[in-house]
Automatic annotation (TrEMBL):
<keyword id="KW-0812">Transmembrane</keyword>
<protein>
    <submittedName>
        <fullName>DUF454 family protein</fullName>
    </submittedName>
</protein>
<dbReference type="InterPro" id="IPR007401">
    <property type="entry name" value="DUF454"/>
</dbReference>
<dbReference type="GO" id="GO:0005886">
    <property type="term" value="C:plasma membrane"/>
</dbReference>
<dbReference type="Pfam" id="PF04304">
    <property type="entry name" value="DUF454"/>
</dbReference>
<keyword id="KW-0472">Membrane</keyword>
<feature type="transmembrane region" description="Helical">
    <location>
        <begin position="95"/>
        <end position="115"/>
    </location>
</feature>
<feature type="transmembrane region" description="Helical">
    <location>
        <begin position="7"/>
        <end position="24"/>
    </location>
</feature>
<keyword id="KW-1133">Transmembrane helix</keyword>
Amino acid sequence: MKIILNTIGVLAVILGVLGIFLPLLPTTPFLLLASACFARASPRLHNWLQTNRVFGKYLRDYENGRGIPLRGKIWVLIFMWGSMSYSIWRTDHLWVRLLVVLIGAGVTIYLTRFVPTMRIEKK
């Protein structure tokens, strides 16, 4: 079972990293999946993921229930809708446009309604 979980975790990390650059591939769900798999199968890989300098802090905050900072949510939505708008503009298929809009709307609703906004304490 550990081999299967580690394999799924590695594939999820690869897809998550690709999602940083590809507009329709989500990053966060894949990284959360990888973290869940690694937490059960490999403490070393789970620690590596949570201490990663690029996305480790955000992953730790999300997993600990602290949420995402407001500034991060705003940037995610700007970049997501910007890249999705480009994808919508570049396709001639109505069903693809509708699918992209539905995915974007779902992610927006999830991010704004269900993910807590982290309060940053001023020092």
